[in-house]
Predict the structure of Ribosomal RNA small subunit methyltransferase I.
Amino acid sequence: RPGLTLVATPIGNLGDLAPRALAVLRAADAVLCEDTRVTAPLLARHGVSVSLLPLHEHNEDAATPRLLARMAAGEHLALVSDAGTPLMSDPGYRLVRAAIAAGHAVSAVPGANAAVMALTLSGLPPHPYLFHGFLPPREAARAAELGRLRAAERAGLSATLIFYEAPHRLAETLAAMARHLGPRPAAVARELTKRFEEVRRGTLEALAAHYAANPARGEIVLVVGPPAAEAEAGAAEAGLDERLRAALAA
Ligand code: SAM
């Protein structure tokens, strides 16, 4: 039926493309994608031949009226991003908002999302959570954003925080978080669903020291425990100190 369907694609493991995702992509009048060089091989691998239209940050606003007109003419469009769930730190929000406002049917085939996968593997409270996406790359803007989050926490926000981060900035970002947010449990999820998948858990400080000494590679999600976990982490450390003292005294 006419309208727009958001279709999740794998975040590394090609086996994670849902059968229904393939069916929807095959039946679509056109597939909107961030980069045809990424989506064309994925579709070719599954023998799907469909016309691809680029939709990215730079053309989303300009392309939207044309895409709405195609839906109004009875077409069914699918939207994918390079990896994972469209709109999640990826293009599509403005098109979805416009399609809803124009009364078109908007649906989704759910699937991989690095943020949710990292959250579920982090060992940190799964809800409430705040998905932040990428922090600004520049130090001053990043410090300001972390300061705003800390202020929101002082005003009562208590949520597990989820960030996307580039590997070359990881150690620096962890250190900035330790400074601005205080001692917290955290987890770094790397290369999810891929061969070298790894989840490293520890305090922000310990993780910052680890990645300063062992620079990270690959794709990364950073999960930070809520402020309430500070007390727990402190208590756990205090407990450990006591056990150590008792063991040493024995
Ligand atoms: N739409 C995607 C999703 O649903 O997860 C996210 C797209 S965003 C442009 C790309 C960022 O997501 C990467 O820089 C990384 O932070 C995170 N990411 C994507 N795939 C990942 C993976 N396999 N393991 C860890 N993080 C990943």
